[in-house]
């Protein structure tokens, strides 16, 4: 008796390619947000100092932010991304089951847009708190994305391509880090 494979498990369709590419595109953003914070450190610290000095009121000359506070704010700005990812990862299973993988990824994009808006407007609004909150929100997006993308790609991929297509998530993350640098 010959072993026959179904046609559906053998073919790579344009729909599959588009679906995997679209899902993995979010992983590129994940990697980008990991790496992007390091290069502009001095610019962000300068912005924090300007905001700090603008907020001082009274008749005295505004004093620059002390180095310990600046280091604390900078460290929080970097680390809050991971905290957001950790917190949101606990919601991953519930979200994936409640909305389904595809809808959950679509809804998760709300976090990406919200985080981007907060970070983008933080200097205009003279608020380093907005940048820190934006990093937390984009971290939450990445925490959910880091579970949903491989889950979705694994479920839509033909069995023989599951491992190959599953590695695209990691490839997109490291590519995003490279682009950010």
TrEMBL record:
It comes from the Eukaryota. It catalyses: D-glucose(out) = D-glucose(in). The chain crosses the membrane at residues 12-32, 73-93, 105-124, 130-153. GO terms for molecular function: D-glucose transmembrane transporter activity. One of its GO terms (cellular component) is perinuclear region of cytoplasm. One of its GO terms (biological process) is D-glucose import. It is a multi-pass membrane protein. InterPro entries: GLUT, MFS_dom, MFS_sugar_transport-like, MFS_trans_sf, Sugar/inositol_transpt, Sugar_transporter_CS. It is found in: Cell membrane; Cytoplasm, Perinuclear region. Keywords: Cell membrane, Cytoplasm, Lipoprotein, Membrane, Palmitate, Sugar transport, Transmembrane, Transmembrane helix, Transport, Ubl conjugation. Pfam families: Sugar_tr. Residues 19-181 form the Major facilitator superfamily (MFS) profile domain. Insulin-regulated facilitative glucose transporter, which plays a key role in removal of glucose from circulation. Response to insulin is regulated by its intracellular localization: in the absence of insulin, it is efficiently retained intracellularly within storage compartments in muscle and fat cells. Upon insulin stimulation, translocates from these compartments to the cell surface where it transports glucose from the extracellular milieu into the cell. This is Solute carrier family 2, facilitated glucose transporter member 4. It comes from Chiloscyllium punctatum (Brownbanded bambooshark). The lineage of its organism: Eukaryota, Metazoa, Chordata, Craniata, Vertebrata.
